[in-house]
Amino acid sequence: MSSQLTRRDWLRASGLLAASFSLNRLSSAEAAMPNAPFVSSFTNEFAFADDPFDKMPKLKARLLANENPLGISQSAKEAIMKSAELGNRYAWMEFSQIKALIAPDEGVKPENIMMSPGSSDILMAAAEYFAKDGGTILTSAITYDDLLQRAQKFGAKIKAIPMTKDYKYDLPAIKAAITPDVKLVYIVNPNNPTGTIVPTAELEAFCKEIAPKVPVFIDEAYIDFYEPAERPKLGKLVADGQNVILARTFSKIHGFAGLRLGYAIAQPEMLKTLRGYTNGEFAVSITTLMAGIASYKDVAWQNHCRAENAKARAYTTKALADMGYEVIPSAANFILFPIRMKTKTFEGQMFGQGIGIQTREFNGQPFCRVSVGTMDEMAIFIDGFKKVVG
Ligand SMILES: Cc1ncc(COP(=O)(O)O)c(C=O)c1O
User: Fold this and answer.
1) 29 alpha carbon – ligand 1 mean position (Å)
2) Per-residue pLDDT tens for 359-378?
3) Which domain of life is it from (predicted)?
4) How many structural domains comprise the chain?
């Protein structure tokens, strides 16, 4: 397809124009019906194989779980070695040490921070707590849905508001949809799977207005991919006493997906409540904590990972655009773009070449979500993609 086609021409040719209109229509209808069942956007999560994990070691390019392809820092590895000496001891002061490092950066007090084995635990705790008496969780139509799926199991309804045309959270529409039964607003920024961000000033203003009425949960799993100068600093809202909960993870820029470390920033009372729905902070091992402390201090490694991610993301975005694909601009370590074949066929052919990706389907339009790997992996991805699409 010629890259000279306009966006509208391409959308029309690919049928995406109709799909995007119907997406908005359907989602509006769903949004208008608080009782409508929440339809997961993760239609193809690991649907590509009976046992995807069995296939992982054989992949040439592992681009399906938004991991850090560069691994953990040398400083974290050294801390892990040291931690072996302390494996017989319960972690204790390591919790205070890591909170003392994080708190000043966020402009909060250590008591505003709760550590967890990955941020998933915080999402799950919030899901249970906010869903236990029923009510509604308000969010966006295309987003990360672990918290939402869990909340639904525990009795909440999910009201998912359509995204803006450029695949961003529509904060004014979310605000307009707040009703007395809304227990929580869930925002993912940068969003997964779209990779989009909402302007920081808009998000801040939204929180200031909404949080006094309804708690706002902001899942900032991908925040470390912002350039430091542009990074939202929503900890100050927590410091000001707002009922805002921030969820963070070391799984992304720090490469701790397997080590498991995350934290929540919120009011101490809220943390106490949420802690009651977790296994407690001691679920985090001393090994992970010591590695986390080392990695957090290793700003040079984080800068390196961010820069490499930006480079490989720009390369992939351009290569796809040159082939006539409309990539949604991403601020994270993955890219979402519409494809022109069935998700299963696409996945099968990519996996057949040893390239692990994920797909999504929104109202009949298939998308590829590819994590940003190393430059070599992205070259393998582009090469394999060209073979699949011809
Ligand atoms: C938006 C978002 N939130 C939370 C998580 C959970 O990450 P973890 O439990 O590894 O911290 C993920 C994982 O990919 C994610 O994409």
Assistant:
1) 29
2) 999 888 999 999 999 999 99
3) Bacteria
4) 2
247 contacts 221 by C-beta, under 8 angstroms:
yes
Q: Which atom of ligand 1 is nearest to the CA of 118?
A: 11
In the DSSP assignment, the letter for residue 211 is T
Q: Is 42 exposed, middle or buried (0-12, 13-18, 19+ CB in 10 A)?
A: buried
At residue 349, the 3 state secondary structure works out as: helix
Helix (H) or strand (E) holding 360: strand 358-362
Q: How much distance in Å is there from the Cα of 120 to the middle of ligand 1? A: 6
Last residue within a domain, chosen from 269, 298, 327: 298
Tell me whether residue 335 is in a domain: yes
What residues are paired with 246 via a beta bridge? 218, 265
Residue 300 phi/psi, 5° resolution? -60, -40
Residue nearest to atom 2 of ligand 1 (CA): 221
Return the pLDDT at 94.
97
pLDDT digits (tens, 9 = 90+) for 83-121: 999 999 999 999 999 999 999 999 999 999 999 999 999
From ligand 1's centre to the CA of 180, what distance in Å?
29
- What is the span of the domain harbouring residue 52? 7-69+301-389
**Residue 261 CA: which ligand 1 atom is closest?**
11
> How is 234-295 classified by DSSP, letter by letter?
THHHHHTT--EEEEEESSSTT--TTT--EEEE--HHHHHHHHTTSS-GGGS-HHHHHHHHHH
Asked if residue 91 belongs to a domain, the reply is: yes
Q: List helix spans (H) across the chain.
A: 7-14, 16-32, 52-55, 74-83, 93-106, 120-131, 146-153, 171-176, 200-210, 235-239, 268-275, 286-297, 299-322, 343-352, 375-389
pLDDT at 233 over 90: yes
In a domain? residue 264 = yes
Nearest CA to ligand 1 atom 15: 221
Site residues for ligand 1, CB cut-off 6 Å: 66, 118-120, 123, 144, 188, 192, 219, 221, 249, 251, 257, 262
